[in-house]
Amino acid sequence: MRRPVVAGNWKMHGTRAENARLVEALIEASDKASGEVVVCPPHVYLWEVGRQLKDSSIGLGAQNVCAEAQGAFTGEVSAAMLKDVGCSYAIVGHSERRQIYREDDALVARKFRAAQAAGLVPILCVGETLEERERSVTEDVVGRQLDAVLDVAGVAAFAKAIVAYEPVWAIGTGKNATPEQAQAVHAFVRARISARDATIAGGLRLLYGGSVKAANAAELFGQPDVDGGLVGGASLKADEFVRICAAAA
Ligand code: PEP
Predict the structure, then answer these.
(1) Which CATH number applies to 5-247: 3.60.21.10, 3.40.50.2000, 3.20.20.70, 3.40.50.970?
(2) Residue 118 — very low, low, confident or very high, per pLDDT cuts 50/70/90?
(3) Residue 47 pLDDT > 70, yes or no?
(4) Which of 100, 111, 148, 240 could pair with 92 as two cysteines, CB 3.0-4.6 Å apart?
């Protein structure tokens, strides 16, 4: 039985005051969620949000991590630093990082390894663009993104990782994948990992991300290979996010 997890990616939003109000509301509601709940604020707020979450069951994650351990990498934040300020998770390979900041599969694989080396659970994002879906190459793209990490980190690394399927065309667009489309890709991801290790694949939590809302969460999370969600916009609204977490539980 895989424990469901819902992670909120706040992206580059929030102020200290807004974060405090949001976290307070999430903590108040957190006893209703029997799954795992994680919030991923911008780096600069991690410490303060982490302090506020200290006695709660809600986990703290980073939205990005440097592939290097330390040194002359101006503006970057290492996995060890994220761990030091209280993070347990780090998103790697989010499509906004892949597309806007040109992070390629090889760099994403190095970030995955760096996160794990510091004791963080990587949340590895994979997913196709609209153009790729229309060309019917979704499985080629997602398979390539997965293999890049599997080849570098090894399948055993997936025993302590989470994978998020995030079709790029569904992120922030209000247009979610149908539950059937999500299930089909999730089943593909599990099979791809199962080809290397069936036990690890069976225990791996696969999140769906892309315009998840309270109104569509239960149907998406009801699919056999969907173990929760990675939620962007809707994670900034306490009521909405709490209802999404309840749908996963
Ligand atoms: C995301 O940022 O990972 C995401 C899925 O965003 P949204 O839920 O807003 O589509």
Answers:
(1) 3.20.20.70
(2) very high
(3) yes
(4) 111
Indicate the top mutation candidate among 5, 6, 11, 226 to test ligand 1's pocket, ranked by most ligand atoms within 8 A of CB. 11
Identify whether 13 is a catalytic site residue. no
Report whether pLDDT(62) > 70. Answer: yes
pLDDT at residue number 35: 85
* pLDDT above 60: residue 183: yes
Write down the domain spans for the chain. Answer: 5-247
Tokens representing 76 are 């970057």
pTM for the predicted model, two decimal places: 0.97
Name which of 133, 142, 181 is nearest 163 in CA terms. 142
